[in-house]
Amino acid sequence: MFLKQFERGRTFVAKLDYQADLLEELNKICQHEYIKAGYIQVIGAISSLKYGFFDQDEKEYTYNTYAYDESMEIVSCSGNVSVKDGKPFCHMHIVASDKKGKCVGGHLVAGTSIYAAEVVIQEILGEDLVRELDETTKLTLWK
Questions:
Q1: Is position 50 within any domain?
Q2: Does residue 134 belong to any structural domain of this protein?
């Protein structure tokens, strides 16, 4: 088990720009503010969605299969911030619904276009939260 204690740091709120890339904007904020550990919540709507899925049998992500070029509501979008390859990195999951309420979701990847998005980022303070390749799962996990 991995367990570390952190203290609450700075809290950021942001309204992200129309048609910007959701994941890229979150990473920009965390890199600009040099947030090395934290958690993120996003609410709003998107005009397109791109997400991935980690295939546990193949031990690899599939990204290009899951794309929706339509208006969707963000039902849930949350994740965390840690350090990967020496810089702040946002690991986000998203669930979005279409106009009929059908939900889809997975690992947020670049290519999701914002219609409207409000974000809260809570920094946590302590040791750097660093990601490294886990040989068992082939995922980049906290060490």
A1: yes
A2: no
